[in-house]
């Protein structure tokens, strides 16, 4: 009886203990659920790592932003540069390509110069160029604002910009054009084919596509770092930054002050540049946290470059592949909690965690094949690029395929130690050799000219002519014949070319009888000096004549030999 009683008592106590633990567990679970609900209400629920839904939205918006800028530059400047009456008409270029490939517009012409302009009527080319730019601005503006896109839209943007770059000739010869085309090509594969949704459930972001962006930032940085180490000696003795801010193509106001930084700071900058471009990119392969460290450092590096100079949209564009180093958990702070894309991603992650992942459809399986094919294509096209990186004769900003899908990159392999500028001047004097002749200066929109004018701040916008004038200054006019073309247009007060300038000294007056190019050496004034107190941002010293005084009649043969239309001679000068 005692044994039975003890056993009954033990069972009773055990049941009460189990019931008590059950009650506590249920209470705890209820408390957790309530806490989770509260966290959801407060927007405190964090996303899991390893997914890239929000990363895709950020990437697409940033790519669209760069496209919008690029098409805006094209709309504002293409007519003057490659239009009907531009400095290098693209119609003439297309005709020369047509003759080169046998006189027919076929696959040979399309392969040599991929552009939809082959399929359009070349009459009124300005309207065609404007149309391409406006469509590009409209589509990229939509993606930027809405944060949604599909393969059709992104492919259209890529084709449209390709069409401009391939007929842009010298004006589109910069490395960031190829970089935008490669970035835009990869962005096509971020999206669903047709669906317009920020979080299309049936089209998760491909990890392969994310890694192609990461591979892009690795190549950009390594290319830039290696070309410096193999190039100018000043990169190896850490003195390049003593010159860079003053001699870069288009300085901004911060360049003026950063140029006067202490010598030890310039050494630190140069050494940091080597570490960021040659060592940090390899963090990408060391796991999630180190990959994000690489992304953060690269973005910060580009921001510093943006602040210290006008390098077009290059640095803004380089931020794009760096964003692929971050997953949804890292980028969730950019999105409003409880609504929109972030809420959708939370629901998807909850479904996946609960084993409710939808069964792959036929379309999803096809998409996986496409993603794998993309990886194989990028890997194959990367072979010559990697060989170029390893070569002692490394080339920078070069494409090895006509579609510019995978390219080599690099910047400032050599640094100019002195800044020189070409200054256009005109005079109404009958005799250019007359010592009493008054020569008046033209001013460009952004490049240094007037020593009292503050350096401009235009990044991420870009003035193509100003940038090319930087190259012309350390070449000769024989190497840059388009400079003489500009001079001829100035002699007739040509409105097309003058729209690319900031100041025409002959505005509202007779055009100049003579135009010449003067060569000057420029350097920043010393902050706090007497020159700076007078309002001088620059000091300059004449080197000599860049090209001699020219007039319209004297240029007639020069223009005819190059098939350039001869500028109109004013009636009172005939």
From TrEMBL:
Organism name: Mastacembelus armatus (zig-zag eel)
Protein's name in the database: Lipase maturation factor
Domain Lipase maturation factor 1/2 N-terminal, residue spans: 172-332
InterPro entries: LMF, LMF1/2_C, LMF1/2_N
Functional description taken from the UniProt entry: Involved in the maturation of specific proteins in the endoplasmic reticulum.
Keywords attached to this entry: Endoplasmic reticulum, Membrane, Transmembrane, Transmembrane helix
Keyword DNA repair: no
Transmembrane segments: 58-75, 101-120, 132-160, 271-287, 299-319, 369-390
Pfam families reported for this sequence: LMF1, LMF1_C
Domain Lipase maturation factor 1/2 C-terminal: 405-548
Subcellular location: Endoplasmic reticulum membrane
Cellular component, GO annotation: endoplasmic reticulum membrane
Membrane topology summary: Multi-pass membrane protein
GO aspect biological process, one term: protein maturation
Family: Belongs to the lipase maturation factor family.
PANTHER family, alphabetized: LIPASE MATURATION FACTOR, LIPASE MATURATION FACTOR 1
This protein's record includes keyword Transmembrane: yes
Main location class: endoplasmic reticulum
């Amino acid at each position: 009886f005692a044994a039975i009683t003890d056993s009954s008592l033990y069972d009773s106590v055990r049941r009460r203990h189990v019931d008590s633990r059950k009650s506590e567990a249920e209470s705890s679970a209820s408390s957790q659920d309530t806490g989770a609900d509260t966290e959801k209400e407060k927007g405190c629920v964090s996303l899991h790592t390893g997914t890239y839904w929000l990363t895709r939205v950020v990437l697409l918006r940033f790519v669209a932003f760069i496209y919008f800028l690029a098409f805006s530059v094209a709309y504002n400047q293409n007519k003057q540069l490659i239009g009907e009456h531009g400095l290098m008409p693209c119609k003439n270029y297309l005709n020369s390509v047509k003759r080169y490939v046998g006189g027919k517009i076929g696959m040979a012409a399309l392969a040599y110069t991929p552009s939809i302009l082959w399929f359009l009527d070349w009459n009124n080319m300005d309207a065609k160029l404007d149309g391409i730019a406006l469509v590009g601005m409209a589509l990229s503006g939509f993606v930027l604002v809405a944060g949604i896109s599909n393969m059709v839209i992104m492919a259209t943007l890529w084709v449209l910009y390709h069409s401009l770059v391939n007929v842009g000739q010298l004006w589109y010869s910069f490395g960031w054009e190829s970089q935008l085309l490669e970035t835009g090509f990869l962005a096509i594969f971020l999206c669903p084919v047709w669906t317009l949704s920020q979080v299309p459930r049936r089209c998760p972001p491909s990890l392969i596509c994310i890694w192609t962006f990461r591979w892009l930032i690795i190549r950009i940085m390594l290319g830039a770092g290696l070309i410096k180490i193999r190039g100018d000696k000043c990169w190896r003795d850490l003195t390049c930054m003593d010159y860079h801010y003053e001699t870069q193509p288009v300085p901004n106001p911060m360049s003026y002050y950063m140029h006067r930084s202490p010598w030890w700071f310039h050494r630190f900058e140069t050494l940091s540049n080597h570490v960021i471009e040659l060592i940090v990119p390899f963090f990408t392969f060391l796991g999630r946290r180190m990959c994000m460290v690489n992304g953060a450092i690269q973005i910060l590096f580009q921001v510093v470059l943006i602040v210290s100079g006008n390098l077009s949209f290059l640095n803004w564009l380089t931020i794009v592949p760096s964003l692929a180093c971050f997953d949804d958990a890292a980028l969730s702070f950019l999105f409003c909690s409880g609504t929109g894309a972030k809420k959708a991603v939370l629901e998807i992650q909850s479904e996946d965690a609960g084993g409710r992942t939808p069964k792959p459809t036929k379309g999803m399986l096809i998409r996986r094949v496409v993603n794998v094919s993309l990886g194989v294509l990028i890997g194959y096209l990367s072979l010559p690029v990697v060989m170029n990186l390893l070569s002692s004769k490394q080339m920078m900003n070069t494409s090895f395929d006509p579609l510019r899908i995978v390219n080599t990159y690099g910047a400032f392999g050599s640094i100019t130690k002195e800044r020189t500028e070409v200054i256009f001047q005109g005079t109404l004097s009958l005799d250019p050799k007359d010592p009493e002749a008054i020569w008046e200066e033209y001013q460009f929109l952004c490049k240094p000219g007037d020593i009292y004018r503050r350096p401009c701040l235009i990044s991420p916008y870009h003035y193509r002519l100003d940038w090319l004038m930087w190259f012309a200054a350390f070449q000769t006019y024989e190497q840059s014949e388009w400079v003489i073309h500009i001079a001829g247009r100035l002699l007739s007060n040509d409105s097309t070319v003058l729209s690319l300038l900031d100041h025409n000294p002959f505005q509202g007056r007779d055009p100049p009888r003579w135009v010449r190019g003067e060569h000057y050496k420029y350097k920043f004034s010393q902050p706090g000096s007497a020159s700076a107190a007078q309002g001088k941002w620059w000091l300059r010293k004449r080197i000599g004549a860049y090209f001699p005084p020219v007039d319209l009649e004297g240029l007639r043969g020069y223009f005819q030999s190059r098939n350039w239309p001869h500028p109109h001679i004013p009636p009172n000068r005939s």
